[in-house]
Amino acid sequence: MTAYALGNLRPPAVPHDEVLSYMERIQATLDPYGGRFLVHGAPAREVREGTWDAALVIIGFPSLDHARDWYDSDAYQELIPLRTRHMAGDILLIDGVAPGYDPAATAAALRTARP
After folding, report:
1. Which residues form the DUF1330 domain (predicted)?
2. Buried (b) or exposed (e) across 5-44, using 16+ Cβ within 10 A?
3. CA 62 to CA 79: how far, in whole Å?
4. At what angle do helices 74-84 and 17-30 cross, to 10 degrees?
5. 111 burial class (0-12, 13-18, 19+ CB within 10 angstroms)?
6. One digit per residue, pLDDT tens: the chain, 115 residues?
7. What is the pTM of this model?
8. Bridge-partner residues for 95, per DSSP?
9. DSSP per residue over the chain, as a string?
10. Which domain holds residue 69?
11. CATH assignment at residue 16
12. Structural domain count, the chain
């Protein structure tokens, strides 16, 4: 099942050279794990609910195991400080939904499971 690495990043107005180096080198760490950028820091064009003041990053992987292996890899661990020394943020790994996912079926199961 497809999985994702999500980044909720708060970059400075002017990126530090180490952050630029991180950006230049990250794809090489993703390639062995089938990772590819789906969203890379684009500003939110329309905030429809709530507030948003961060840069969103979404990276897709073939599975959660691939995402974990990438994040835990020596190559990526070496890069992390280049970003974290200069940019606050939150990173999470999460499963996507299976093909054919039906939210109505999930709602029905939740209704059935209620006390």
Report:
1. 16-97
2. bebebebeeeeeebbeebeeebeebbeebebeeeeeeeee
3. 22
4. 160
5. exposed
6. 999 999 999 988 899 999 999 999 999 999 999 999 999 987 788 999 999 888 999 999 999 999 999 999 999 999 999 999 999 999 999 999 999 999 999 999 999 998 8
7. 0.90
8. 3
9. --EEEEEEEE--SS--HHHHHHHHHHHHHHGGGT-EEEEESPPPS---SS---SEEEEEEESSHHHHHHHHHSHHHHHHHHHHHTT-EEEEEEEE-PPTT--HHHHHHHHHHH--
10. 3-113
11. 3.30.70.100
12. 1
Amino acid at site 48: R
Residue the block writes with tokens 């794990």 = 33
